[in-house]
Design goal:
Layout lengths: L32 H5 L20 H4 L16 H11 L11 E8 L8 E8 L2 E8 L2 E3 L15 H7 L4 E3 L14 E4 L3 H10 L7 E4 L13 E4 L2 E5 L4 E4 L4 E2 L4 E4 L17 H4 L6 E2 L3 E2 L5 E3 L8 H16 L8 H15 L12 H13 L22 H18 L21 H4 L20 H9 L8
Parallel strand pairs: 4-15, 5-12, 6-7, 6-12, 7-8
Antiparallel strand pairs: 1-2, 2-3, 9-10, 10-11, 13-14
Helix pairs in contact: 7-9
Length: 471
């Protein structure tokens, strides 16, 4: 395993900015908003910020075989999570080469000593190494480089006011927004959390633009909500929204608009990958490269429960590459891709697994893993690690996570004392006692009854199977 940092934890590692955000210099001559948004990023930057807490209860977030430490607050702090990952990785720590960046991966012409040629650069000392492998897994995540929205006037604004444009990738704390009139763009969990932090320091109201309200959205008296941002008007220091309203005298713009996939080491496999990212990758089941099935990817899906989903994918991957599971033909894998694209679209929508789609996917991966267990050829082979099979209670918790998070945040400074969702008034009721056993089996994620409903309709249908008690 190659890890470019000096420790495990990936995106959960906190990286302070190398120098003050939005200083003069490079930004003043930048032509594009992306140059401004990334000008002060340190090497190996992550989007971690002070006071960050997970948006999933820790008992939902954890791997199947290792719980979080006893006494962990319900929504773990970033410090809790990095400690958890370091403890989890101890068993394989001896296999990891730290301070080692992968700079090129390409299929070999001569495959006598391996199918893939992997070039790495040691950061200390600065040496180049080439090794050969039979298979390669890319597990480098997708939360280190900002995705900027296509907004009229964004580049013009960045040239006119480079010190006022920010992206959540460089956000560390709200201190630089004291007394300022701030526009925050984005409606995801990070946008909601960062907005709440900034609102403690900025001039009220904080202006917030969302194309659609996130499940984590809350109405606050000190936040003024608008629909999607249509244009920035630098000559008026103003913003125009989809409803036609214009807000002026904006000091700072904060873009919480997500991140893009980056695989610069795979240019030899796909020439367009630097420009198109994950869109350029033809993946089967979000894991296997259709043309190169010994090249695999972990956690390309978004809007998911990350650790358990990665565990499911890794279990499938291990069984396929050990010969215990077989991939379909290339033609059938391409048909699967075409079907997903016809249902959800290409590009990022292809990998968007909003709940309950992430639950359905993990159920499929679990079932696929267990297709090997009845084979005679596998009777004397170790079964290998099997991922968690999500029961009713876990599924209910996944669907309720956003509501529980909002109740958790409402505790303010006292929320760190909350260890269970029951303390917030949430209860899971056994489905049998509620009389909910029917053809619509939540634990099996049966989708036939959901086929003609939008995702939000799915979510509501599932939630109707359970009960939330207020205390």
């Amino acid at each position: 395993m190659f890890e470019q940092r000096n420790r495990v934890g990936g995106v959960w590692n906190y990286t302070p900015l190398a120098r003050a955000v939005n200083t003069n210099g490079y930004q003043q001559s930048a032509d594009k908003a992306i140059d401004v948004a990334t000008a002060n990023l340190p090497d190996l930057n992550t989007p971690m910020y002070e006071g960050l807490e997970s948006n999933l209860p820790h008992m939902l977030m954890q791997f199947s075989d290792v719980p979080f430490a006893e006494g962990t607050q319900l929504f773990a702090s970033r410090e809790n999570v990095i400690e958890y990952l370091e403890n989890y990785a101890q068993e394989v720590d001896h296999l990891i080469k730290y301070n080692c960046e992968v700079i090129d991966v390409r299929p070999k012409r001569d495959q006598k000593n391996g199918i893939w040629e992997v070039m790495t650069k040691s950061l200390s000392p600065n040496d180049i190494h080439v090794e050969h492998f039979d298979a390669v897994v890319a597990a480098n995540g997708h939360c280190d480089w900002p995705l900027l929205p296509d907004i009229e006037g964004l580049d013009d604004w960045s040239r006119a006011f480079p010190q006022s444009l920010h992206h959540s990738v460089s956000y560390k704390n709200p201190l630089s927004f004291c007394g300022k009139r701030v526009l925050l763009v984005g409606g995801g969990p990070s946008g909601a959390d960062i907005g709440n932090q900034i609102s403690t320091k900025c001039k009220h109201p904080l202006l917030r633009s969302q194309t659609a309200k996130s499940p984590y959205h809350t109405d606050e008296p000190y936040i003024r909500d608008y629909p999607g941002l249509v244009a920035l008007i630098p000559e008026q220091r103003a913003a125009r929204f989809a409803d036609g309203i214009i807000e002026r005298d904006i000091d700072d713009v904060v873009l919480c608009t997500g991140y893009t996939y980056r695989f610069p080491f795979l240019v030899a496999v796909h020439q367009d990958i630097e420009r198109e990212g994950v869109v350029a990758l033809p993946l089967y089941q979000h894991i296997f490269h259709v043309q190169h099935p010994t090249l695999a990817f972990i956690e390309t899906p978004e809007m998911i429960v990350p650790f358990p989903l990665a565990e499911c994918q890794a279990a499938v991957l291990a069984r396929v590459w050990s010969g215990r599971l077989c991939l379909p033909s290339q033609q059938d894998m391409e048909k699967w891709r075409d079907q997903v694209i016809s249902e959800r679209g290409a590009g990022r929508r292809f990998h968007a697994l909003e709940p309950p789609l992430d639950l359905e996917y993990m159920k499929e991966m679990y079932d696929w893993c267990n297709e090997t267990e009845n084979e005679e050829s596998c009777e004397k082979v170790r079964k290998g690690k099997t991922p968690k099979r999500w029961d009713d209670k876990s599924c209910w918790l996944r669907m309720m996570a956003a509501d529980i998070k909002k109740a958790f945040n409402a505790r303010g400074a006292q929320r760190s004392k909350v260890k269970t969702y029951e303390e917030l008034g949430f209860r899971f009721h056994n489905r049998a006692r509620l009389g909910c056993r029917s053809k619509l089996k939540f634990c099996d994620y049966a989708t036939s009854a959901f086929a003609h409903h939008a995702l939000e309709d799915k979510r509501q249908l599932l939630l109707n199977k359970f009960e939330h008690l207020d205390g």
